[in-house]
# Entry
Amino acid sequence: MNVDVFNMDLRKFLKRVGVTSQREIEAAVNAAIESGKLTGTEKIKARMTLTIETLDVDHKIDGEISLS
# Structure
């Protein structure tokens, strides 16, 4: 295994995950506020799941996101 190539590709993947996840969450929160489903003062629960089928990885991360 080329560790440098692996680390670079892993970082690229994680950056893409972070950027796209943030965009999706922001869009969903904004839509929920506009529709009245949220007021903008809540704490929302979130779960991220990392799945890597080849490695039998199924890892869940739970957290909360404060809106104010």
In short: The first strand starts at residue 43 and ends at 52. The radius of gyration is 16 Å. Residues 3-66 form one domain.
